[in-house]
Design goal:
The complex is a heterodimer of chains A (312) and B (296). Chain A is of the alpha/beta class and 312 residues long. Chain A has one domain: Alpha-Beta Barrel (TIM Barrel), CATH 3.20.20. In chain A, strands 7-6-5-4-3-2-1-8 form an 8-stranded parallel beta sheet. Chain B is α/β, with parallel strands linked by helices. Chain B has a single domain, classed as Aldehyde Dehydrogenase, Chain A, domain 1, CATH 3.40.605. Chain B has a 5-stranded parallel beta sheet with strand order 7-6-5-8-9, with helices on both faces. In chain B, strands 3-4-10 form a 3-stranded antiparallel beta sheet. Chain B has a two-stranded antiparallel ribbon with strand order 1-2. In chain B, helix 4 crosses helix 5, helix 5 packs parallel to helix 7 and helix 9 packs parallel to helix 10. Chain B is elongated. Chains A and B meet through loops of A and loops of B.
Chain lengths: 312, 296
């Protein structure tokens, strides 16, 4: 890191030199480290705490072509009070919807403290012109989205056109105004862990407030090793620049056990400072019911059943 | 030297069987890693069996729930065919079951053969009921309006079964078959004293077209596992046939929370060889009534 970070984006060659100068990821080592941390046993009171923390970190998401205002309103009601039978359950961090449903969600969540996030920039493929992406972002922000989840142009990234990716992120960040920008790397399409590390740094230098693993539309979505690499990146970015960036794994996290594995990973990699909904989120939909079922099991001592929780 | 080598060659090492659980069509060890010693009725060592924990019970309920839509959605005719297939496979292992029943119950080989034959016949008998139970439990109801009004029996869902401690094969078949023939799926807590025929039965089930998860068999302590199943909110009914009086009360109290159907333990000793009647099937059925307008 001989070039100061502020200057690495000044030309295509310095950006390329910086990203390719990042140390390579030891794939076997990263997989083994993630697998080892996943064996930690979190029980009783620690588990109770972890479940509540995980619930407060959930970005409750619906990104289907069939989404209706009614479905979004129902999801917002659940976001504010995940278990109507138990007011001690914390609210989730945010709901995540398509831009055209932001206004509906904002209205439903008014005054609750639950944020509205919107995907934008030709989600999930990112295949459109910069004008369309910026306009879509501006529309979502105007509708009241507090957080924007953008996708990077994976085609450009894989073709080596890092500047294009950088400039798109910077332009969308500018269009966000006060809203937080989450940059989706879609790690399932980046092919290597080295690319995940490069894309993480690229997004952070370009101004991302959060880096997010996946859209949820591509398999594999979030995995523990990929999240580990991104957590290392935000930790190193903080020490290099003094700016703190959040991480959001999304897609494929369905059980409480999975969620707790991610929390362990955060604590052991980036540190306990990131164990906060402002700095770590879990993008999920079915995960919430499993967290609620586990919570009820711990409270009542009997195994819970899915019939007693809302479908979403 | 050569004599010793020859003697060693003659003495074949016994191949000891490992008895495991049967969950979701697979044979896992207990999550807890525990096992217990199973002895014959005369107290001789027979084998080690897995001692299931509450987490094994939880996994078994998940497997049963997952299997329910497919199994209850299959045609009654198809379920009957599969049960008949189970009977065929059981018949093919007759000698093995006879030996296991002799060990477990201490009965004569002749009596054991009679019990195994009765178990095969019981399966065939229940297999026949699959597409006929609707005829005696369903009805076309006369109503004062322009409607066809039809009632038909539907499976309850996931049924927990505490298998009888005596009659390790016939008793077991007689409690499992009526539960699954109507489309329920089940989690069975096998006889603690004589669990080996139940795992051998699981091997029969695993090789007879029965979808994985329709029958899940746990070996171990009923007193330990059954209350967890009775309290489980995703279990729809519990058959307490094999529970002692104290355990039955505990389980029935726990089962009240989500209004499970409860089949209480029989008041008198059951003769498993007798005609079972339809009671064990109808205990785990719901009635669905459909009002269909006439002439539209």
């Amino acid at each position: 890191m001989t070039t100061p970070l502020a200057e690495v984006a000044s030309s295509a060659s310095t950006l390329r030199a910086f990203l390719h100068g990042l140390p390579g990821v030891d794939r076997v080592g990263a997989d083994a480290r993630a697998a080892m941390l996943a064996t930690r046993s979190i029980k009783t009171t620690a588990k109770k705490q972890a479940i509540d923390l995980a619930i407060s970190m959930v970005d409750l998401t619906t990104l289907e072509g069939a989404d209706t205002p009614g479905k979004v309103r129902a999801m917002c009601a659940k976001a504010m009070q995940p278990d109507p039978m138990d007011p001690s359950v914390p609210a989730v961090a945010a709901v995540c919807v398509y831009p055209d449903l932001v206004a509906t969600a904002v209205q439903a969540l008014a005054g609750s403290g639950v944020k509205v996030a919107s995907v934008a920039t030709a989600f999930p493929s990112g295949r459109s012109s910069l004008e369309v992406k910026v306009t879509e972002t501006a529309l979502a922000v105007a509708a009241g989205a507090a957080e924007i989840d953008m996708v990077i142009d994976r085609g450009a990234f894989l073709a080596g056109d890092h500047v294009k990716v950088f400039e798109e992120i910077a332009a969308v960040k500018a269009a966000c105004g006060q809203s937080h920008l989450k940059v989706i790397l879609e790690t399932g399409e980046l092919a290597t862990y080295d690319n995940v590390r490069r894309a993480s740094w690229l997004a952070m230098i370009a101004g991302a407030d959060f880096i997010k693993t996946s859209t949820g539309k591509v398999s594999p979505a979030a995995t523990l090793p990929v999240t580990l690499i991104m957590l290392e990146a935000v930790r190193d970015f903080l020490s290099a620049t003094g700016r703190k960036v959040g991480v959001k794994p999304a897609g494929g996290i369905r059980t409480t056990k999975d969620a707790i594995k991610y929390l362990v990973l955060v604590n052991e990699t980036a540190g306990p400072d990131w164990l906060d909904p402002d700095w770590f989120r879990l993008g999920a939909s079915s995960l919430l019911n499993d967290l609620l079922m586990q919570r009820q099991k711990m409270a009542t001592g009997r195994y819970a059943g899915p019939d007693y929780f809302t479908l979403d | 030297m050569s004599e010793r080598v020859a003697a060693q060659a003659m003495e074949r090492l016994a191949v000891r069987k490992t008895y495991k659980l049967f969950i979701g069509g697979a044979f896992p060890r207990s999550e807890s890693g525990r096992s217990y010693v199973v002895t014959s009725s005369k107290g001789e060592f027979l084998a080690n069996a897995s001692k299931a924990s509450r987490k094994d019970a939880r996994d078994a309920v998940s497997a049963a729930r997952k299997a329910f839509p497919g199994w209850s959605g299959a045609t009654a005719y198809n379920r009957g065919q599969i049960l008949y297939r189970v009977a065929e496979m059981l018949e093919g292992r007759r000698a093995q079951f006879v030996a296991e029943v002799v060990d477990a119950d201490g009965v004569s080989a002749k009596k054991a053969a009679e019990l195994v034959d009765a178990a095969v016949d019981r399966l065939v008998w229940y297999a026949g009921w699959s597409d006929k139970i609707g005829a005696i439990q369903g009805s076309a109801n006369p109503v004062a309006g322009p409607y066809f009004n039809l009632s038909s029996p539907e499976p309850t869902g996931v049924v927990a079964v505490v298998a009888p401690p005596m009659g390790p094969l016939l008793g077991l078949v007689s409690v499992i078959a009526p539960v699954i023939v109507t489309g329920n799926t089940c989690v069975v807590v096998a006889s603690e004293r004589a669990p080996l025929p139940s795992i051998t039965l699981a091997e029969v089930l695993a090789t007879s077209d029965l979808p994985g998860g329709v029958v899940n068999i746990l070996t171990g302590s009923a007193a330990e596992i059954a209350p967890w199943l009775a309290g489980h909110m995703d279990v729809n009914a519990i058959d307490l046939t094999g529970a002692d009086a104290e355990l039955a009360v505990t389980c029935e109290e726990l089962a009240a929370e989500n209004l499970k159907r409860v089949l209480r333990p029989p008041a008198a000793k059951v003769d498993w060889l007798a005609d079972p009647g339809t009671g064990r099937m109808t205990a785990f059925l719901e009635t669905k009534t459909v009002w269909h307008p006439i002439g539209t």
